[in-house]
Amino acid sequence: MPNPPLKLCMISGSFEYDSEESLTIFRDYIEKNHPVKSTLIIYQSEDDNQSLAPLEDTDVLLVFTRRLNTAGEELERFKAYCAQGKPIVGIRTASHAYQNWLAFDKEVLGGDYQGHYGSGSLTHIETHPAARARPILKGIPPFDTYGSLYKNPAIAQDTKLLLTGKAAEHSEPVAWTRFYRDGKIFYTSLGHQKDFRVDEFLRLLANAVFWVAGRL
């Protein structure tokens, strides 16, 4: 008997990167190609107070927000989802998703966001040699992306590095997985607006959603 459609809840709140438009592109892509039912929570400003109630009935949470000032009940709802060890996909500014819980980066995602290099050049994405056989990278050849390269000099020791990015003379980890309280986590520092026009990037995100859900 086939699995029921996967329930995906996506939180949009990264205004610098037009996350609403980008996640709408991704929603259309994943629903066209996979059995997925998506819910998109859209913040209109850093001080918006959107209800995160859909987190209580979702298979996977995808986070693409930046320094939202969420506090109180809704932030606690977000923290409770993480504490239960549930699947999470983080995109780019998810490393500083909520201003009142910046520890989300190190504690949950396993990252070490320390700013970024200047923009202007393409970033070339390559598979980490130890990750070539990982199912999450199936059908993902080397590709180029846009936007500045994030600095993550000391990601958690229990992460599994998937992809590295090279721009000019700089090289950084740009995608990895880990477990947090037995829940599967995927994070990528990619996610510029133009990246959502790159088929390899959309395929990577779709693979990540199904991997963290235990269906890949």
What does this structure look like?
- With 216 residues, the protein is of the alpha/beta class.
- The protein has a domain at 6-115 and 176-212: Rossmann fold (3-Layer(aba) Sandwich).
- It has helices at residues 19-33, 72-83, 104-109, 199-212; strands spanning 6-13, 36-42, 60-65, 88-91, 123-127, 143-145, 160-167, 170-180, 183-188.
- It has a 9-stranded mixed sheet.
Tell me the number of helical segments per DSSP (H or I, 4 or more residues long). 4
Rg value: 16 Å
- Per DSSP, what share of the residues sits in E-state strands of 2 or more residues? 25-35%
Helix content: 10-25%
User: Which stretches of 5+ consecutive residues score pLDDT under 50?
Assistant: none
Main sheet, how many strands, which sense, barrel?
A: 9 strands, mixed
Strands across the major sheet, in which order?
2-1-3-4-9-8-7-5-6
Number of strands: 9
Q: What fold name goes in the CATH topology slot of the domain at 6-115 and 176-212?
A: Rossmann fold
> What is the level 1 CATH name of the domain at 6-115 and 176-212?
Alpha Beta
Rounded to the nearest angstrom, the distance between the terminal CA atoms is: 16 Å
**What gross morphology would you assign?**
globular
CATH superfamily of the domain at 6-115 and 176-212: Class I glutamine amidotransferase (GATase) domain
Average pLDDT: 96
Spell the H/E element sequence.
EHEEHEHEEEEEH
The CATH architecture of the domain at 6-115 and 176-212 would be 3-Layer(aba) Sandwich
What structural class results from the helix and strand content? alpha/beta
